[in-house]
Amino acid sequence: MASAASQNRHPQAKRKPDHTTFLTLDRQNDAINPSKARPHYPELAKLSAPHVESFNSLFGYGGASSGLLDRAVLDIGKRTVFDGRTGESNRNKLEMWLSNVSVGKPVLEGGSGMLSNQLFPGECRERGISYKGMMQCRLNWRVNDGPVTTEVKSLGKLPVMVRSVRCNLDGKSPRDLIKHREDGEEFGGYFVSNGIERLVRLLIVPRRNHATALIRSSFQNRGPTYSQFGVAIRCVRLDQTSQTVTMHYCTDGALTLRFSYRKSEYMVPVLLVLRALCEASDRELFERLTMGQSTNTFLTDRVELLLRSFRRYAVHTRKQCLSYLGSKFAVMMDSPEDHYEEDVGAEFLKRVVLVHLDDNKDKFDMLIFMMQKLYALVAGECASDNPDSPQHQEILLPGHLYLSIMKEKMGDWLGAIKTQIQLDLRMKPAQVDFADKKYMSKVFLKTTGAADIGRKMEYFLATGNLVSNTGLDLQQTSGYTIVAEKLNFYRYISHFRSVHRGSFFAELKTTTVRKLLPESWGFLCPVHTPDGSPCGLLNHLSHTCRIVVDKVDVAKVPALVASLGVGQMSGLGARVRLDANGVPDEDRMDVDGEASDGDADELDALDPEIEAERRNDVTVSVQLDGKVIGWCSAALALKVAQRLRHWKITRARPVPLDLEIGYVPPTRGGQYPGLFLFSTPARMMRPVKYLVNGEKDMVGPFEQVYMDIACLKEDIVPGVTTHIEESPTNVLSVVANLTPFSDHNQSPRNMYQCQMGKQSMGTPAHNLPHRTDNKLYRLQTGQTPVVRPKLHDAYGLDGYPNGMNAVVCVISYTGYDMEDASILNKSAHERGYGHGTVYKSEFIDLAAKRRKGEPVTVHFGLSVGGEEDGEVPTTKAGNILDFLDWDGLPIIGRRLTQGDPLYATVDDVSGKVTVVPYKSMEDAYVDEVRLIGTDTGDQELQKIHIKFRIPRPPIIGDKFSSRHGQKGVISQKWPTVDMPFSETGIVPDVIINPHAFPSRMTIGMFVESLAGKSGALHGRSQEATPWSFLEGDGESAADYFGEELKEAGFNYHGNEAMYSGITGGEFKADIYIGVVYYQRLRHMVSDKYQVRTTGPVHNVTQQPIKGRKRAGGIRFGEMERDSLLAHGVSFLLQDRLMNCSDYSQSWCCSQCGSLVGVESAAGQGKAICRTCGDSKGVEVIAVPYVFRYLVSELVGMGVKLKLTVR
Amino acid sequence: MNIDHHSGLSFTEAGGPQIAIKEVTPTTVTFVLSNTDLSVANALRRVMIAEVPTIAIDLVDFELNTTVLADEFIAHRLGLIPIISHQAVHLNYRHECTCSPYCEECSVLFSLDVSCQSENAMSVYSTHLVSSSPAVQPYVDPANEKGVLIAKLRKGQQLHVKAIARKGTGKEHAKWAPCTGVAFEYDPHNKLRHTTYWHEEDARKEWPLSAKAVEEPAPRDDEPFDYKAKPERFYFTVESTGALPPTTIVTQALDVLMRKLAEVHRVLGGIAEAQGEPVVQPTYNL
């Protein structure tokens, strides 16, 4: 039975899944006998892969046991301190560095007699603590290059990602997961911070190691002569930290490199850097830059100018350049005092300039390339690259960001030690002795705050704020983490798939960044983005989009490229354009077309064909991950690209599948040409089918722009198309895919559904009794949709129902369904349709009220010592023992109304019992009371968690929606007898108005209705994947389901003759009726209604206060007042704005017109005007209280306000 | 009142409404009501759904509930269990009874006390309910002898409730409705043109004929439209929840209908008497 069921579910191997059944028995079997081996829904588990895998890469990268963490620690380098005074001789040198950073799995510490000290995320959630593991490192130091001393230091407890390699749930099967109080399908990817699940957002950052040409007017503000042209490159080190460098073109012909280091900006002449990188003469530089284009006077003039103007620096050799750089950047680099300027210069080049490359020659080549690209941009030969296009973007992965923060904090710690020593040297130099272990440990002790990396990471996760000295090459300081709300499962999934453009762009006034670009096809979902302020900035990955995380082995690629005839760099000799004759025959591939001799007739340039051919001869660079690995003609580059792609798919040569082969052909004024290969992590990749052999190819957004990928079979152009989409639905995100027949809808409706699907009450999780979320929505009577796309099964969403199938009638009936309101069948409601529950919870920590170190004096309980016969305090609610037990805790299952006792505490010292009431206005049941101990479990109870259950049956005013962006509120609940009915006795559950359709054009809902009806009649599930039906007569979805309905004896078009429930008469028109899946949205009147007659008023103005929670009123504002005035309803005006607001009676002196000058004369029972000195003119008038307030404020300013009383 | 199962219902007055029963199964009855007005037919339909009294669990006292399901959720499920309601006629409605909170006159007590001792999950069915009255039992469908599933228990979980079943009608809550659905139809050939069949080309091709169409002669194409005609034959199918046999639902519905009419008659008679007008005795007896 079990094996049969699993075969059914993992059908890829044997047979196609049967989409006509609901697979109910399989699911039941999975629930009763969870798998001991693999996840039930592998597709679902993949959704959090970018998060989990990137975190895992910290601990293991490229198959090696050493991960990115080790590389980061290595890259932190050494900190050096000298004792004594500057200039003194015989100073002692202390070098410190870190090594062997390790992170352990989360454990409970200090307890004795525990069966296991493993800490699981479930416990953290229930106890409201963080899920973290011990982090340790070795702190090494040596004095005067002597022997190394090592000490193991704790770096605090590091928050650990759930289901990562450092999580205790790593590799657990569904059965084990359930044992550890998780969902069987738990896929992790988040951190538990104070009991709350938080995850690090995926962010869009510029594509790494690729020079992008930019035209920005803001570049002109960088300094005098700066132009708008620039070429930027975001270089990423092996440990995934980055350093962006921008090359600027100045109008005086100079080129400068701009970078920011520790949040300050610096500019360096490019030539200085070039010369410091390699010994190169002016001639060599000239030839490398111009590459034999001696006729291009634009270029030669500029290069000449550049070389000439560099003379003024008077640095000629490489050494001189390095020293010059060193002298300028020694302070910025905080370099050791014993370093020579030359060393500092070399260190500068290593740490700042093109950090993705190790070799200076590679850096030199890349800088040359950037200069060429910049000159081409200035000359207008190439266009600027669009930084908003996914072509030039990649994803900042949570693990990588996490690591870079950790790296910085570890560096800061070393820096703190250094600062502490320097402080000691200044304040009490006698004590400083590097050789003295005691002194060193004293210093370490003083810097333990900086050593607690774990606490800093926890702060980062809990707040999403980036506290950084360097800025980490990022554009924002906050908003990096979000709560993984389990409002329902759709919303939960979406968190892991969402990609944000960065909060910097949210404030941008232009909308260009929000545009949906064709380049994002297949990578970012065009449908799934919220409307409103984050529209277009918060996107979601398409469901097949994968993010490369692990190392891609490209060691063989340069050799393979060379074998195809791409010229290699050797020495710094002049790089004359490589024409076809330049490559030895045996290395060459057949390149079509004869090479032209370059000096062709001027007129030829006008002929587009000749021009295009000439373009094929342009020499382009071949780059692998931002390293120039060769040069060749464009025609050859194209061939190389094609051959590489063929190899990568057929696996004929060691070309990895995740290699991105972006061939940019030479064009007139288009993107700068070249062959760009990418193998680095953090790139988006997606699968498409290679037409040649039908195998899977992974395609990235850079190469996709220049590829010919057909969407459907009909789109294939022979000889052009190389790939085809696996399925057109691959472009949609998970949630967008779940809209049935979304291809029939007007597009904004699908966007609305993506929002509403995420707001509906559903099944957030299976481990509800072990969750302590603040607020949780649950649909009691969820159902699997009759009509659902294939992916619904692949993602196992039947485990998380999000709505219910409703018989929906499209009819205008009794008028209560006007304006998007819908009528609910009262009897359906009574049978459970749409019943929901809200869970709210509260942590009560008695320790929070106590100061640290004080003894425990307050306990939960109703009597001192816990006897069960003490005197019970009386409450308004009646016998307190009806609500609480002697332990002071509420009784489970008890219904609470406002003011009822919730829990009681007793103070040892005073013996006083404090009963704390239940405060919410809404009645609730006590669902769970959780007693929370400490890690060790040997402390007395001081913390509890109470979960309240609030039943929320649907009531008038609650919001419902179909899956087609058709939302509405319930306006009336009609009993069955009053509802219209069909000849077969079917009574609709929901009535909606036909006017909801013409303007919104949600044809998908009609189709779903048809499909649902026939599915219900035939007892099968209906496949509703978008783009699975053709258009046209006889092939459309309507025809397909029409035939099915006909077969069941119903009208082809889904209409039925219906009768009025009230009169029994047949309706004049036939009615469209079918089965549609309805979602109950979380917006409920119970959370929103606001009523007030009298109540609390504001202290100063005596006007009603605002706020629903405080029983305040709704503001009757100026515009409302205007409309009453316009209406002439003065009595209402008087009532609202005076009598029901701040009506007050006041004395007023009719003689002098004073309002506040009248005061009551003591003991005389009358009032006297202080200005007039008598009570003759004093009268009582009705004024708004605020007016009195205004008058007294004016008095305070010395302004008299005089009333005329008539 | 007098029902002849062979020829249908015969009222004392000849030419009055007639019922011809077509088919009776344990859960359904199909009949044709004729010789009466649409309003009467619809009234019968409405009464069958909403006003035939049955018994259903209305109040649940939870003594112990350690299942995963919330109290109110189990209570709701218990309420929806169909209970054989022949005794409903002998019970008082809650508002008719002076007792507090309930008594034997107005309620039947059910108790459910289950706990799971086995390693496997235990299913609690409506057959686990123990009634205080042997004549009032949960309805059990012959195809499903265990009854309705109420909850599932894991080892160590317990459910102990006292459920009070009361008499009520579908008007108040759907759980008291004796029928799951009432099919109602007249004029299968649309001779009266009460409705218009929307069609793309040919309404006759696109619209399936009702099963009841064989009962009436199809109109000829050249038949003139009789705009004075009124619906006369009403085709009913009543499906029971099991609380009452379908035929009983019909007879009790008729009974309720007649009581209502009698009440109108009685009140009007009282007024007539007070005004000194002659009182007409009812022609039917209850």
TrEMBL record, chain A:
Keywords: DNA-directed RNA polymerase, Metal-binding, Nucleotidyltransferase, Nucleus, Transcription, Transferase, Zinc, Zinc-finger. One of its GO terms (biological process) is transcription elongation by RNA polymerase I. The keyword Cell inner membrane does not apply. Its main location: nucleus. It comes from the Eukaryota. Residues 1-10 have a biased composition (Polar residues). It is an enzyme of class 2 (transferase). It catalyses: RNA(n) + a ribonucleoside 5'-triphosphate = RNA(n+1) + diphosphate. One of its GO terms (cellular component) is nucleolus. Gene3D superfamilies: 2.40.50.150, 3.90.1070.20, 3.90.1100.10, DNA-directed RNA polymerase, subunit 2, domain 6, RNA polymerase alpha subunit dimerisation domain, RNA polymerase Rpb2, domain 2. Its EC number is 2.7.7.6. Residues 629-686 form the DNA-directed RNA polymerase I subunit RPA2 domain. Residues 1-38, 583-602 are annotated as: Disordered. It holds the Pfam family RNA_pol_Rpa2_4. Residues 735-1110 form the DNA-directed RNA polymerase subunit 2 hybrid-binding domain. CDD domains: RNA_pol_B_RPB2 (cd00653). Residues 47-427 form the RNA polymerase beta subunit protrusion domain. It is found in: Nucleus, Nucleolus. Belongs to the RNA polymerase beta chain family. DNA-dependent RNA polymerase catalyzes the transcription of DNA into RNA using the four ribonucleoside triphosphates as substrates. Second largest core component of RNA polymerase I which synthesizes ribosomal RNA precursors. Proposed to contribute to the polymerase catalytic activity and forms the polymerase active center together with the largest subunit. Pol I is composed of mobile elements and RPA2 is part of the core element with the central large cleft and probably a clamp element that moves to open and close the cleft. This is DNA-directed RNA polymerase subunit beta. It comes from Geranomyces variabilis.
TrEMBL record, chain B:
Keywords: DNA-directed RNA polymerase, Nucleus, Transcription. Residues 28-267 form the DNA-directed RNA polymerase RpoA/D/Rpb3-type domain. InterPro entries: DNA-dir_RNA_pol_30-40kDasu_CS, DNA-dir_RNA_pol_insert, DNA-dir_RNA_pol_RpoA/D/Rpb3, RBP11-like, RNAP_Rpo3/Rpb3/RPAC1, RNApol_insert_sf, Rpo3/RPB3_RNA_Pol_subunit. One of its GO terms (molecular function) is DNA binding. One of its GO terms (biological process) is transcription by RNA polymerase II. GO terms for cellular component: RNA polymerase II, core complex. Pfam families: RNA_pol_A_bac, RNA_pol_L. Belongs to the archaeal Rpo3/eukaryotic RPB3 RNA polymerase subunit family. PANTHER family: DNA-DIRECTED RNA POLYMERASE, DNA-DIRECTED RNA POLYMERASE II SUBUNIT RPB3. This is DNA-directed RNA polymerase II subunit RPB3. The gene is RPB3.
